[in-house]
Design brief:
Structural class: alpha/beta
Low-confidence stretches: 243-253
Shape: globular
Order of helices and strands: EHHEHEHEEHEEHEHHEEHH
Number of helices: 10
Distance between the termini: 39 Å
Strand content: 15-25%
Number of strands: 10
Radius of gyration: 17 Å
Length: 254
């Protein structure tokens, strides 16, 4: 197994000027750990069809920026990864791709954990998330969701395993990523498709509940079919006539 020379953090973003600074600050905190400082770190924001100051914000925060107009999280993740690998210019077997989202905050040991997993021979790491910042009107719905999320897949499995896949908390060795075709150009589910392809090709995929990523519990989605849409549907199913739950959260979707 080849040791890591670099870690590329790839973050797709569509009109995320407000939340992106907190995301990038959390990545910088994670990068300060001694176990990570020994490898090269590159942060790439893929600014997709942005009409706000996402591009300028990412540059000011020190990220390399890929720009595109695909309005597709899958294409944005793929474009960001292409730029990262092209910029690094090293053997993909020595590069770890860490994926998160522009409305998320990674924990301080996120990159340390992913690097440790890579050094132990894992080809990919599939983590979990924790929502934050939900409207007060739906506190009970989110609480029920979090309980169900935390116990999903736990029966009959070793502690720590789970069935979830989130682009907000995902890592993969670049050579494995390239061999299975990378992120497909999907408007939703590109993270699930990548993990399924890795598993189908026999790569070692670790599912873990350690070091969950905080992610926005907003109810108006940037990406249709993503986590925000899932939360919004839970709210609609529980209390279909509750406009206050959505009035606190305005966003331009993908």
């Amino acid at each position: 197994m080849t040791g890591l020379a670099a870690i590329a953090v790839v973050i797709p973003a569509h009109n995320e000027q407000t939340l992106l600074p907190a995301t990038l600050a959390s990545v910088r905190r994670a990068a300060r750990h001694p176990a990570v400082r020994s490898v090269r770190l590159l942060v790439v924001v893929a600014a997709d069809a942005c009409t706000d100051q996402t591009y300028e914000t990412a540059r000011q925060e020190g990220a390399v920026v890929a720009t595109l107009g695909a309005r597709s999280p899958g294409e944005a993740r793929a474009a960001g990864t292409r730029l990262a690998l092209g910029t690094l210019g090293v053997d993909p077997a020595t590069v770890w791709i860490a994926s998160t989202d522009a409305d998320s905050e990674v924990p301080p040991r996120w990159l340390t954990h992913q690097r440790a997993c890579a050094e132990r021979g894992w080809d990919a790491v599939v983590g979990t998330i924790r929502p934050q910042g939900w409207p007060a009107a739906v506190e009970d719905v989110i609480s029920d969701h979090m309980r169900a999320y935390a116990t999903a897949g736990s029966a009959g499995h070793r502690s720590g395993l789970h069935p979830h896949v989130h682009g907000a908390n995902l890592g993969v060795r670049a050579d494995a990523y390239l061999r299975v075709g990378g992120f497909p150009s999907l408007t939703a589910g590109e993270d699930h498709a990548l993990v399924a392809a890795l598993q189908a090709h026999g790569y070692r995929v670790l599912r873990t509940r350690r070091f969950p990523v905080l992610t926005s519990a907003r109810l108006t989605a940037r990406a249709r079919g993503g986590y925000a849409d899932h939360l919004a549907q839970l709210v609609r199913d529980t209390r279909p006539l509750h406009p206050k739950a959505f009035s606190e959260d305005r966003a331009t979707p993908y």
